[in-house]
User: Which sequence fits this backbone?
């Protein structure tokens, strides 16, 4: 096309500009000069955007790969081996400068990231040493502390005005109850070469099962704005989405701060919640037959809900759903599988054949028509020779269902806060997977490239016109 004598010629997907005769001879009016500047800036922008077509849209997820919008940060997982499916699952992070390395539990069912500071949680575990890194103590006057205090995640110490916490885990009425107490710090976290500043807890004391943990701390990945994944999003490190893939045969896997993109993923809507990844579980089927559970049990409300939780190893089934589920399993097994009650009250089965031939399949049916198909190893745990016990326990006195690692292993689990959905598919988690970083809050490196291109164009064009 031609505009004010400006000729655009495409070459190799990029535009070239030829100055009009009036500009070369210095006969442009001020208004014409302004128009020429605007047109050439537009050309520079179009050329910079066109260059993005040379980038691949998706790459196989590997460390240090650059994707459109930036890097997908991914961390390897390691199971603790406490169960047949190797759960719970840990990853390694580096805190401070110089970096101190820690094994932390990845926990989508809790909010704050923290590590032990004064005393280790168990044998072969580490503590964070603030004297090495000189982190910043989070003060009570800090807006982040004030925001957390409103949600009972922080409180102020009257003697020194530091932001402290007393976090509780599990059901206070059961043996799973635990707590962690300490103070908040701000320091750098390093994730496979990507560094940013975060707020995390420095735990001084704890109780319950935490005292027997095989890890150095817990990194909460809940939707809450101060969780680890939300802080990465706020810092522009990742989009508002992450993917977990836990490999049960080896205990390995991957935590990727991006969205898995593989054919076969199914999605169900995430229900509004700042604390959990809540979903609408509508029904359960055993061998294709719907279990007769009262429809009110799973109907979402403030007191009745279902959520997925990588920080819980087993499944805790809503009180009203447990007995019908157990009865359906018993009705589906052959006479050769003998049901018994263990010494600690667990429902178990003795069988001389494989669990695949002795036990049925189970389906979880979610809103939107999404199904999660489970095999016997997703609801049974091996205890001793020829004996398997139910790994789905009764959440006594509450209609809350918690879907833990035993049903989440060997699947891509996509936590998509941006689009308010949870996705999954069966997957060999020893293999890499396709991923995209999601929409970031900050400008990417490519956006900076466009801006720098425009900046150079402004300088050159301004010089030419002012000296014409």
Assistant:
């Amino acid at each position: 096309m031609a505009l004010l004598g400006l000729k655009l010629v495409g070459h190799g997907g990029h535009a070239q500009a030829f100055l009009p005769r009036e500009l070369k001879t210095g006969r442009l009016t001020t208004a014409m000069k302004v128009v020429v500047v605007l047109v050439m800036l537009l050309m520079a922008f179009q050329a910079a955007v066109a260059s993005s077509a040379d980038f691949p849209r998706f790459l196989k997820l590997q460390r240090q790969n650059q994707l459109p919008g930036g890097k997908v940060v991914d961390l390897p997982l390691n199971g603790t081996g406490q169960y047949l499916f190797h759960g719970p699952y840990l990853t390694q992070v580096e805190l401070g400068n110089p970096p101190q390395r820690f094994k932390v539990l990845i926990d989508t069912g809790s909010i704050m990231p923290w590590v032990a500071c004064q005393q280790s949680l168990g044998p072969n575990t580490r503590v964070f040493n603030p004297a090495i890194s000189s982190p910043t103590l989070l003060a009570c006057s800090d807006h982040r502390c004030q925001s957390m205090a409103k949600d009972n995640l922080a409180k102020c110490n009257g003697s020194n005005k530091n932001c402290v916490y007393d976090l509780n885990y599990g059901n206070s009425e059961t043996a799973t109850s635990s707590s962690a107490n300490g103070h908040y710090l701000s320091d750098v976290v390093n994730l496979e070469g990507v560094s940013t500043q975060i707020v995390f807890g420095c735990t001084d004391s704890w109780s319950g099962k935490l005292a027997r943990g095989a890890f150095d701390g817990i990194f909460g990945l809940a939707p809450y704005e101060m969780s680890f994944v939300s802080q990465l999003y706020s810092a522009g490190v990742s989009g508002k989405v992450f993917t977990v893939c836990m490999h049960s045969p080896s205990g390995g896997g991957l935590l990727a701060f991006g969205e898995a993109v593989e054919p076969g993923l199914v999605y169900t809507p995430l229900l509004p919640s700042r604390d959990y990844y809540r979903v609408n579980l509508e029904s359960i089927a055993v061998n294709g037959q719907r279990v007769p559970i009262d429809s009110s049990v799973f109907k979402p409300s403030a007191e009745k809900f279902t959520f997925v939780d990588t920080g819980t190893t087993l499944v805790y089934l809503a009180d009203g759903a447990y007995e019908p589920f157990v009865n359906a399993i018993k009705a589906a097994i052959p006479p050769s599988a003998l049901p018994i009650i263990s010494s600690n009250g667990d429902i178990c089965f003795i069988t001389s054949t494989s669990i695949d031939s002795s036990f049925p399949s189970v389906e979880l049916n979610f809103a939107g028509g999404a199904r999660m198909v489970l095999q016997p190893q997703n609801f049974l745990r091996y205890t001793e020779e020829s004996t398997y016990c139910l790994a789905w326990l009764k959440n006594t006195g509450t209609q809350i269902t918690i879907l833990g690692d035993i049903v989440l292993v060997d699947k891509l689990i996509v936590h998509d806060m941006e689009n308010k959905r949870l996705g999954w598919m069966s997957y060999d988690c020893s293999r890499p997977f396709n991923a995209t970083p999601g929409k970031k809050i900050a400008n990417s490196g490519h956006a900076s490239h466009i801006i720098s291109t425009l900046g150079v164009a402004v300088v050159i064009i301004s010089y030419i016109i002012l000296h014409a």
Notes: Confidence is low (pLDDT under 50) at residues 1-28, 34-39, 44-69, 442-466. DSSP finds ten helices and 37 strands in the chain. The radius of gyration is 28 Å.
